[in-house]
Design brief:
Length: 295
């Protein structure tokens, strides 16, 4: 009984922290500038945690943080300034798209080259992976999706509704996966990766995301295809959110750690809280780029 009470206290505490954090995030989305600032800060902190988890110490760990901030801010501002309004449709000039991609690739090459130099100059005993590899992982796992997330939202006719819809899909999946798993979970989803995630919880989170996403898509007018398209992308988003959570759990098992950091106390680190978001950031870019929902 004491163990069950402790677990429910932990879950309730995590839920309260999640609600407060979610309220802050949602509030920042009302303005594009505040959204850019918030996600730059969150992902920069996650970058820092990632390097600490891999054993990178000293001044080298600030190199990718600086590059991350410069590239996310720089490319977001480039696209924001380049976005024109033609007959009510937000469109991104292709020349700026190519320039942005060229700058991004240059940044990836730069961070990897500096990482190779760092490997040659410094190798911590606790470090199991070359610095250049860690930085490449961070660039694709944190910097890339953050840029795509911000640019994708600014391309939409209603950035607030667009950003909010995707985050609520992610949060709904996470919350109901945890709740249903604690109440009725019996069959482990991936025992070698996570001892707590269950098939029942994953299914509960998936169904809850379908319902929430369909309703919110109709209310928020996020998709040109209405609630039917909202249902489709809710299913995709829930799947990606579950996979993103498992990916970070697998990384923590490989590193033999329970959390990326203790900055949030018993709730782990920033990266532990946004792991499900990062795959969603990629997915929303695919949707808005090829579906044309910004019209």
């Amino acid at each position: 009984m004491h163990g069950n009470g402790q677990r429910w206290h932990e879950w309730t505490s995590r839920l309260i922290v999640g609600i407060l954090g979610g309220a802050i995030v949602i509030a920042s989305l009302w303005n594009e500038w505040s959204a850019i600032a918030l996600f730059v800060v969150l992902t920069a902190l996650a970058w820092y945690e990632l390097q600490i988890a891999f054993g990178i110490r000293g001044g080298w760990r600030f190199v990718p943080l600086i590059l991350h901030v410069l590239f996310v801010f720089g490319l977001s501002l480039l696209w924001k300034r380049s976005t024109t309004n033609l007959a009510g449709h937000a469109q991104l000039p292709m020349i700026d798209l190519y320039v942005g991609m060229a700058i991004f690739i240059a940044g990836l090459l730069l961070v990897c080259m500096i990482g190779v130099i760092a490997d040659a100059c410094l190798r911590c005993p606790q470090q199991r992976t070359p610095i250049s590899w860690v930085w490449a992982i961070g660039w694709f796992w944190l910097t890339t999706p953050t840029i795509l997330w911000l640019v994708g939202g600014m391309m939409h006719r209603n950035p607030f509704a667009w950003w909010t819809w995707w985050l609520l899909i992610t949060w709904t999946t996470d919350i109901f996966s945890m709740l249903i798993g604690k109440l009725w979970g019996k069959h482990l989803l991936a025992p070698a990766i996570s001892p707590r995630k269950t098939w029942e919880g994953a299914l509960g989170g998936f169904v809850a995301a379908l319902i929430a996403g369909t309703v919110l898509a109709e209310i928020g007018d996020c998709f040109l295809g209405g609630w039917q398209e909202g249902l489709l992308w809710s299913a995709c988003g829930a799947f990606v959110a579950i996979f993103g959570d498992l990916f970070e759990s697998r990384l923590k098992r490989w590193l033999e750690i329970d959390a990326m950091s203790t900055v949030l106390g018993a709730h782990g680190g920033i990266l532990d809280r946004i792991d499900s978001w990062l795959g969603i950031f990629y997915l929303q870019w695919i949707v808005i780029s090829f579906r044309g929902v910004y019209g």
